[in-house]
């Protein structure tokens, strides 16, 4: 990105995560020309000062660009495009390390990707597990993805329930951490009430993992465990109390069978309780050190 001559943000608000905490692009004045395309004119220029702001549906802008055809001299950018594609392909590769303190959540995400229908609705609560699943299972063009815009926890389960009610007969898969499940997971009662059947994947690392990561990175060698530790229920048993199917994943060897069982259930919600590694804090970061590929 830092070698680019122009940054075009299509359908992107350019939040703290996307901008690497507002360092690229810098706020409010980016260090390179910026074009921002977003449907709401109030959002354009609110944080960043783009050289060109376009208040429009992103898909409409892309269709208009495609109608214009390739510009003159496009061939000279072939090497640049190939390099970007190579980076993208590497980041999307289903690659993860087996952990000793729990299941690497990436293994679960990859397996789920094998079962997702082209028109599935996928929802996600806030948390570092969010960094694992979009990169490791590929949503197709007809799928819907719902997530928390402001990064607040608690939306994952309600969104999955709403998606299942709104789109009866179609897949609705919700991802949440243990913290998010404890906040608003009881909305599974609403799914039972209205006959909806979402699949809820609970990543349980027994802590507020994102908060712990920020402590680890910004204040190394200072104790913080007591501030982020959670004492959790058996989420599979919790799901069964509501009338849902409850499935537990404690080791990576159980992932394939457990996920197949979850997707085979059609008549009621499913809660998949994954005992997740806390050492693997995100797709590219471990506690105390960057990720080391196995």
Describe, in plain words, how this protein is organized in 3D.
With 294 residues, the protein is α/β, with parallel strands linked by helices. The chain folds into 2 domains: 7-69, no CATH class; 105-290, Rossmann fold. It has 11 helices and 12 strands. The strands form 3 sheets. The protein has a 6-stranded parallel sheet, with helices on both faces. Strands 1-2-3 form a 3-stranded parallel sheet, with no helix packed on it.
Global structural class: alpha/beta
Indicate the percent of residues in helices. Answer: 25-40%
Spatial shape: globular
* Number of helices, where a helix is a run of at least 4 consecutive DSSP H or I residues: 11
Q: What fraction strand?
A: 15-25%
Low-confidence stretches: 290-294
Query: How many domains, as an integer?
Result: 2
Which whole number gives the mean pLDDT?
88
CATH class of the largest domain: Alpha Beta
SSE sequence, one letter per element: EEEHHHEHEHEHHEHHHEHEEEE
Query: How far is it from the N-terminal to the C-terminal residue, by CA?
Result: 27 Å
CATH superfamily of the largest domain: Thiamin diphosphate (ThDP)-binding fold, Pyr/PP domains
Q: In CATH terms, what is the architecture of the largest domain? A: 3-Layer(aba) Sandwich
Total E-strand runs = 12
CATH topology grouping of the largest domain: Rossmann fold
Question: Biggest sheet, in brief?
Answer: 6 strands, parallel
Radius of gyration: 21 Å
Tell me the strand order in the biggest sheet. 5-4-6-7-9-8
């Amino acid at each position: 990105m830092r070698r680019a001559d122009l940054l075009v943000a299509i359908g992107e608000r350019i939040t703290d995560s996307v901008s690497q905490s507002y360092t690229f692009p810098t706020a409010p004045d980016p260090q390179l020309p910026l074009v921002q395309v977003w449907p709401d004119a109030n959002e354009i220029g609110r944080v960043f000062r783009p050289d060109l702001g376009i208040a429009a549906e992103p898909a409409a802008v892309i269709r208009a660009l495609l109608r214009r055809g390739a510009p003159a001299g496009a061939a000279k950018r072939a090497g640049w495009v190939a390099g970007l594609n190579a980076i993208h392909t590497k980041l999307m590769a289903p690659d993860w390390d087996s952990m000793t303190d729990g299941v690497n959540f990436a293994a679960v995400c990859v397996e789920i990707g094998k079962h997702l229908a082209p028109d599935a609705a996928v929802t996600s609560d806030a948390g570092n597990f969010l960094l694992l699943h979009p990169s490791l299972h590929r949503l197709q063009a007809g799928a819907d993805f719902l997530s928390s815009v402001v990064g607040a926890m608690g939306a994952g389960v309600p969104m999955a329930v709403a998606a299942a009610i709104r789109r009866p007969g179609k897949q609705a898969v919700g991802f949440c951490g243990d913290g998010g499940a404890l906040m608003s997971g009881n909305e599974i009662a609403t799914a039972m009430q209205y006959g909806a059947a979402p699949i809820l994947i609970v990543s349980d690392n027994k802590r507020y993992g994102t908060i712990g990561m920020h402590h680890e990175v910004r204040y190394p060698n200072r104790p913080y465990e007591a501030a982020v530790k959670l004492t959790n229920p058996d989420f599979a048993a919790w799901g069964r109390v509501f009338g849902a199917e409850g499935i537990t994943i404690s080791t990576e060897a159980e992932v394939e069978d457990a996920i197949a069982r979850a997707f085979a259930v059609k008549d009621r919600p499913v809660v998949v309780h994954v005992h997740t590694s806390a050492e693997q804090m995100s797709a590219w970061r471990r506690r105390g050190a960057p990720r080391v590929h196995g």
